[in-house]
Write the structure tokens for this entry.
Amino acid sequence: MNNRTEEYIGKIVLGDKVDITDPCYDKDVWCRMTVNCKPGEYTGYAIISDEGEWGNRVASIGIYKDNKVVDLDSMELIGDIGVDAGLAGFFNNKPDFPDDEWTNFLIESGVWDSNGEHDYDTSYYACGYGLFSQSGYGDGSYDVYATPERDGFVIVFI
């Protein structure tokens, strides 16, 4: 138990801000954050943990500018976010979704299949403006870390 592997999610280009949130949240929700970051291309990774009878779960998700992966020990806690859809990640100006667009987002990102059923074979996702994952054991509050230079960010689920 607790064997961990790192898996590549994809890339995202950010301006000078990153939205760190559950993708279901609109910009006016209090339990999400938008923080300053260094502009550029970020590479995302998920750390997958074998949680025994719970199966493989996403322990953390991180993005790193120019693919310069940084150890969590060299980052600082910058706050926490809330999760209500069992998903969280990093977005470039994440849009607010009306219900029909939220459903399309989930299908197009691969979270749901075309029948609206959850795809349990995949635990992390990339879309044109974000990298996100399932949130460990589901809904709750999760710590967010950043490098002092604001060129690396991690959400810790487990």
